[in-house]
Amino acid sequence: MTAGDWREGHRLLAERIARLPAIVRDAARDADASLDLGVTGIRRLATTGIGSSEAQARLLAHLVAEHTALPARFLPPSALLAPGPGCAEDALVVFSQGLSPNAQLALTHAARWRRVVAATAVTDAGRLAPLRARGVTVVQFAGEGEFGTLVRVIGPLTGSLCALQLARAFGVEIPLPHDRLAAAVAQAPAATAGVTSTVLAAPLALVASGAYAELISNLRRKILEGMLRPMPPVWDPLELAHGPFQQAFAAPATFLALTRPDAAEEQPLLARLEAMLEPQRHALVRLPASLPMPLCLFEHEMQLNALLLSDLESRAIDQVRWPGRSREPPLYDVSSLPIGRRMAAHVWPEVAALVAQGCRTAVLPLGSTEQHGPHLPLDTDTVIGDALAERLCAEVGDALACPTLPVGCASEHLAFPGTLHLEPATLVAVLRDTVRALGRHGISRVFLFSAHGGNAEPLRAALPELRRACAPVAVDAFTDLRRLTEVLHAESEACGIPPASAGHHAGETETSMLLAVDPAQVRSDALAPGLLTTAADPQRLFYPDLRANAPDGTVGDPRSADAVRGARYLRAWTGLLAEAYRREKNHVHATGTQNE
Question: How many Cβ atoms sit within 10 Å of the Cβ of residue 498?
């Protein structure tokens, strides 16, 4: 198989789909287990999910609202970025198969809800620990390893079974016939045998009756993400004659009717629809389920899976290297937005509450106020330090982001007006006093890092003294400037940017990061190449005076800077910090001592 061959993704999906009957049988048995979520006395239920998880969240809200006296509704994730005081007596259930960054946004303010549940396929204890530390109850379902393709086929089914299990915990009585459900799932694709590629090539619309139309968002998404076709509308049979039919009549169109045995009124209505169509350009495809709502969802999922495989093959769609894959980060990874973990944005009772709930680590970034060439502002390192701290806290889940210290050791830039500087001893004194102050408020661990290279060596040298002076608060730090440079340059080279252009100060890498964080601050009309070097030890260019070697203050070439690459660099840097954060934390837990 050659690179870019569509058959790789087709094979992955076909293998997963073939395993689904057995997976569904086992997951249904697991879902039969009772759950005690501690939801007695809650006032309302809110659910949310992104992508395929949206369907599971909608299913749970529908079942609870229809079959219990508890008010329940689905909310889009952005509605939960800043929940108001009215949710203090409510429950929130967040569905996310892989705990995607954006799904975690909904969990940021867990402390404001009476009860929060995360339904996920993730089993990694390290990723779940921060959620549990916030008081989130984790309910798991199968599908953790389902990566490699844009569309997913396992999680939508196992997540829906989890939704049924959670519905039972909220008082919904619903049977789960394991073997019958697995058999229906295995037999469902046979109904698609006569559907040709020509039928699928026409614009698609789904037809579903009653409340079922509200529960099939993932079937629409399977056509969008799987077939890479426009997301189809969903029409109630009685709605078709009021605009949809007229709009579709003059062109080819295919109507996929999702029928079920508990909706006897569907067949006469579909017969009427069929009589309205023009056979030369229209098709009505009935996709029958043998089980009633909501179990019919599983059969319709399998039928759409069968159509998906057929369409991928006929059109050679690559599900592994999908269009736009490298351009997703700015909206896919919105969890790094400054929501919920910036200590300075809280009022003091909120900080006290977070510490009391187990958030007892503070991330303290070191920045600088110094020149960054003619195109970046003096506070570049401080802005990037804030962005990294927020991303790191979103990644680890159990920390608060302190404001970045805006002045550091920057003697190498003092020849440029505007640069401020602290002597190393002064910086260490500021850090000592800051850590001690945090300790007074219940913080038991402080993790330090610097967004300015000039702080790295003073911080490394001061760590033993800081640890002694600040005990019993544990002090950890990431100070490996060489490793950071290697990682960032590897990322830039993977994007076609040579190390000399990526640079070491105000070059492509740093300019791209600021474009990703605060693009309005980049003076694009002043972008120009600075000193280009591949020196083995670039720090020698900086000391004692960078201006002697780089008259405009730039080491690198910022002209090709790009916000999408900037987001990539920030993710790589955050990954290094998270690795160090967890390594030091685990070392203390295992030995009771800190690394010296």
Answer: 15
Q: Tokens representing 294?
A: 């909501």
User: What does pLDDT average to in each consecutive run of 10 residues of the chain (596 residues)?
Assistant: 73 95 94 90 94 94 96 89 80 92 77 92 81 88 89 95 96 92 96 93 95 95 95 95 93 96 94 94 96 96 96 94 74 50 84 84 97 97 96 87 97 97 97 97 97 96 96 96 94 94 96 92 94 83 94 96 91 94 71 55
| CA distances for 484 relative to 96, 154, 158, 448, 495, angstroms | 31, 37, 40, 15, 17
Question: Torsion angle of alpha carbons 144, 146, 150, 156, nearest 10°?
Answer: -70
Which residues are bridge partners to 284 per DSSP? 255
Does residue 294 have a cis bond before it (omega within 30 degrees)?
Answer: yes
Side-chain half-sphere CA neighbours of 455 within 13 A? 31
Q: Let me know: does 495 contact 506? Beta carbons within 8 Å.
A: no
pLDDT digits (tens, 9 = 90+) for 228-263: 999 999 999 999 999 999 999 999 999 999 999 999
Q: What is the pTM of this model?
A: 0.63
Give 503-537 as a DSSP string.
-SBSSHHHHHHHHHH-GGGS-GGG----B----S-
In the structure encoding, which two tokens stand for residue 339, read together? 């929501």
Per-residue pLDDT tens digits for 188-227: 999 999 899 999 999 999 999 999 999 999 999 999 999 9
Burial class for 545, CB neighbours closer than 10 Å (0-12, 13-18, 19+): middle
Cα–Cα distance between 150 and 207 in angstroms, integer? 25
Burial 302-324 (b: 16+ CB within 10 A, else e): bbbbbbbbbbbeeeebbbbeeee
Instruction: Assess contact for 401 and 386: CB atoms under 8 A.
Output: yes
Euclidean distance between CA atoms 576 and 201, whole angstroms: 46
Alpha-carbon distance of 112 to 82, in angstroms, equals 10
Residues paired with residue 448 on neighbouring β-strands, in sequence order:
364, 477
Place of tokens 């009935």: 286
In whole angstroms, give the CA distance from residue 131 to residue 110.
9
Contacts 24+ apart (CB under 8 A), 479-484: 479/449, 479/450, 480/456, 480/580, 481/453, 481/456, 481/457, 483/576, 484/573, 484/576
Contact 390, 341 (CB under 8 A): yes
Helix (H, G, I), strand (E, B) or coil at 405: strand
Are the C-beta atoms of 362 and 446 separated by less than 8 Å? yes
